[in-house]
Each structure stands twice: as structure tokens, then as C-alpha cells.
Amino acid sequence: MLRDIRDHLPKTAQTDPNKFPAYEYRPYPRMMKDERGKPRLGPSGNPVVVNSAEEERAFLGKEDAPHAASVEIDTDEPATLQSIAPESLAEKPRRGRPPNAAKLPADLTS
């Protein structure tokens, strides 16, 4: 029989969760990794660490992508069934019992 012994352990600064510092996510500094998840090494043999998004883009050789031209969407007129292609309205196969199953005889052995 297993017992929970966590309440019997003394609460010190290292084991008391109420005394842990508050965690705040920071995206940088970040260690650069390759496709396999292994750290990329610099010329000195140490892992490469970047401290900002600009450094990361410079290390990866990426430039800022120009923003795509904004597309204007007409929200005044709702879509009608005539504007939808007739192929998209075609009957799609459905799962479950086929519709002609009701016409089958109750006893299939006769």
C-alpha cells in the first residue's frame, strides 16, 4: 500500500511551493537550435545565444517580410446560394445506414 508522504516532508525554501518565485515567460535570451533540436555551436564551440528578435533574424539570415497588401472584403451583401458553385452543393456521401436499407426485406435468408 502506497502512502502520500508529501505532508510529512519539512517545508523549507527549496521544498515549499508557496515560497517559489513567480514565473514570467521571457522569449529571449534564446539558444539557437538546429532541425534536430541540438544546440547550434558558434566558432568558439559554445552554443549560440541570441538576446533579441533582431539578433535572431540576423543569425538566421532572414529579412523582414513585406506585409501583404490588405484585401478589401465587402460585408454589406450576404452570400447567396447563386454565388456558391453548384459542385459544392452536390450531395455528399453520408455515414451510417444507406437510404435504401429500409427497402430491404426483414429476413435476408428468404
Strand order of the largest sheet: 1-2
Q: How many DSSP-defined strands?
A: 2
Question: Largest sheet, if any?
Answer: 2 strands, antiparallel
Order of helices and strands: EEH
Overview of the structural elements:
With 110 residues, the protein is mostly loops. It has a domain at 25-60. Helix content is 7%, strand content 4%. The chain is built from 1 helix and 2 strands, in the order ββα. It has one helix spanning 53-60; strands at residues 30-31, 49-50. It has a two-stranded antiparallel sheet. The longest helix has 8 residues, at 53-60. The model has no long low-confidence stretch (mean pLDDT 77).
List its traits:
110 residues; little secondary structure; 1 helix; 2 strands; 4% strand; extended
Tell me briefly what this model is.
It contains one helix and two strands.
Give a topology summary.
Layout: E1 30-31, E2 49-50, H1 53-60
